[in-house]
Amino acid sequence: MIKYDIKDMALASDGKRRIEWADARMPVLQAIRQRFAREKPLGGYTIGGCLHVTTETANLMRTLKAGGATVALCASNPLSTQDDVAASLVKNYGIAVFAINGEDKTTYYRHIHQVLDSKPQLTMDDGADLVSTLHADRRELLPQIMAGTEETTTGVIRLRAMAKDGALAFPIIAVNDSKTKHFFDNRYGTGQSTIDGIIRATNHLFAGSTVVVAGYGWCGRGFAVRSAGMGAHVIVTEVDPVKGIEAAMDGFRVMPMAKAVPLGDLFVTLTGDINVIRPEHFAKMKDGAIVCNSGHFNVELDLDGLKKISKAVRMVRPHVAEYTLRSGRRVHILAEGRLINLAAAEGHPAVVMDMSFANQALGLEYLVKLKKPLSKDVHMIPAKIDDKIAEMKLASMGIRIDRLTPEQKKYLASWQMGT
Ligand SMILES: NC(=O)c1ccc[n+]([C@@H]2O[C@H](COP(=O)([O-])OP(=O)(O)OC[C@H]3O[C@@H](n4cnc5c(N)ncnc54)[C@H](O)[C@@H]3O)[C@@H](O)[C@H]2O)c1
């Protein structure tokens, strides 16, 4: 009998249909699952996962189980859990899930502890909350942990900081840093699903509106380009001079947030940084401005500061909180400042998560097959695995590309030929 804590088991059949819909769009993960079912590379291992509980994650969990692993899963964000998926994972796929959409902070951490109670040897994180909790509160479990994986930019940054301080007790594979992850998931996935979340929450018309994008990294670029494609006037704010030039040469206006605030109709943070939009910014926004975050944590917006300059707060639509400032202006905050694409929409499309989660599955297989353990640091997935995923994805899309001729191989490796 598996343990679990989910909202409602009666939702399982809806969840199963949606998991199957996503699976049909994840051919690379499907192929890995079929091989895992034959070879059982993860046989005997227990994996503790802390990921957004979505249909795509469900297919990753199925793949790990097919590979022989015992899996326990909790959410990596209190608002991203799809309760029907959680129910189906328990009922139809026999996977231990501890996640309820809208859970409070205490429940969120209790669920992380319940996953750790399964005594995993391998961890799988999206934002490093599982690994942080392990190191802070469950140190007795550290000796049995072999290694882990990390899905997102913010998690990788946190884990690199731990490794730098000598605090990381086991090696981590930075799935985010694979080319087949951040080139596609962060750019096209976040780019599209952030727009999806904003539209579902507000029915906002992008055409003709001024959209301020904070952060022109992988996610910010994806979102800015797609917003412009829908007819928005895009303004970019940055702290990195190179990214500032890139945004300007991509055709966007670039300026400090303080200058952008009176101009924007919609503000989206995608930085991984803290307090990017602060009370002095909220105070100067247009009446009715919409503000949301699609970076990993809800710290990008200073909502405590916003409360202090507000005289009233009310919910005006699901996911839309209207703050009335003391000046009388109104600012609309979406999804409590949490990842808008996962809170108000479904997260990234399965087609991109296919590659991200192929990295997760093959990353774990790589870790368990290693003859010599990796150092207690943050490591990349070997380029060979990254390239293999790209080849599998391209083949699944029915696209063929050229191969280097022997002469070209020689030329590209030579400093004497053809000058
Ligand atoms: N919504 C999602 O589903 C999703 C998916 C992938 C990643 N993420 C998260 O999105 C965030 C960004 O990820 P990324 O891969 O684009 O990272 P990135 O490092 O490529 O880009 C972040 C950018 O933000 C800029 N920045 C930092 N502080 C800033 C500030 N105060 N003002 C303006 N710009 C600032 C940096 O200079 C950098 O260019 C991370 O938190 C990541 O974990 C979210």
Give a nutshell description of this structure.
This protein is of the alpha/beta class and about 425 residues long. It is built from 17 helices and 15 strands. It binds nicotinamide-adenine-dinucleotide.
Question: How does this structure look, described?
Answer:
With 419 residues, the protein is α/β, with parallel strands linked by helices. It is 44% helix and 16% strand. The chain has helices at residues 12-23, 27-39, 55-66, 83-91, 105-116, 129-137, 153-164, 179-202, 218-229, 241-249, 257-260, 279-282, 303-308, 340-343, 350-369, 383-396, 406-412, and strands at 46-50, 70-74, 96-98, 122-125, 147-150, 172-174, 210-214, 233-237, 253-254, 266-269, 289-293, 310-317, 320-325, 330-334, 378-379. The chain has an eight-stranded mixed sheet with strand order 9-8-7-10-11-14-13-12. A seven-stranded parallel sheet has the order 3-2-1-4-5-6-15, sandwiched between helices. α4 (83-91) links the parallel β2 (70-74) and β3. α15 (350-369) runs antiparallel to α16 (383-396). The longest helix is centred in the middle third of the chain and has 24 residues, at 179-202. The relative contact order is 0.13. The model has no long low-confidence stretch (mean pLDDT 97). The structure holds nicotinamide-adenine-dinucleotide. Nicotinamide-adenine-dinucleotide (NAD) is lined by residues 152-154, 182, 186, 190, 214-220, 237-240, 243, 270-273, 276, 294-296, 339, 341.
